[in-house]
Amino acid sequence: GQSLEQPSEVTAVEGAIVQINCTYQTSGFYGLSWYQQHDGGAPTFLSYNALDGLEETGRFSSFLSRSDSYGYLLLQELQMKDSASYFCAVRANTGGFKTIFGAGTRLFVKA
Amino acid sequence: EPEVTQTPSHQVTQMGQEVILRCVPISNHLYFYWYRQILGQKVEFLVSFYNNEISEKSEIFDDQFSVERPDGSNFTLKIRSTKLEDSAMYFCASSRTTGGVTEAFFGQGTRLTVV
Fold this sequence. Notes:
The complex is a heterodimer.
Chain A: E1 3-5, E2 9-13, E3 18-25, E4 29-37, E5 44-49, E6 53-57, E7 60-65, E8 70-75, E9 84-93, E10 97-101, E11 105-110
Parallel strand pairs in A: 2-11
Antiparallel strand pairs in A: 1-3, 3-8, 4-5, 4-9, 6-7, 7-8, 9-10, 9-11
Chain B: E1 5-7, E2 10-13, E3 19-24, E4 31-37, E5 43-50, E6 53-57, E7 65-68, E8 75-79, E9 88-95, E10 105-106, E11 110-114
Parallel strand pairs in B: 2-11
Antiparallel strand pairs in B: 1-3, 3-8, 4-5, 4-9, 5-6, 7-8, 9-10, 9-11
């Protein structure tokens, strides 16, 4: 089966940098995605890593190490609106493609 | 901007009743998914659908569940005989490709309450 581990909660101050880690176990690994979800809303796509290394998209960056089965999401210049849940998700092909989500990390941004 | 739309936004049903949740994926997308999220918990994969058939399903997706693409635009999830524990937010998602950058677009969800 698949499993993902990420911290349940992180708190940081406005303007700071925060890193949310994710470790995973799966067969048929294809890539690691990150989604943001505000309360009551739908998950929205942030980034996707299929290869090792860092992908940067504005204030958000995502990193993957396939050999370590590990990735992280880096949020810079935190804003209050970044307060949300962040899910890492493994894309895997186990006879069919599916995306399995981690339990989510609740980010609280304080003034 | 194209989006995935889901109806209804809220559905209350009695235990044992059948419900159909409806989704209109983005028009040029080929892969469709249903996920559910019990309040306060993680998003759970239910099923993926491609080329008019189920591509993958999870252990949650038992015989009480079925999916259908009845026409060129709709994608439905049917729960035959609802149970209290089926109460959750159900998200439909679609993506254009399965490999490469797999940006899945999610609908706003249907909140199902079974009483």
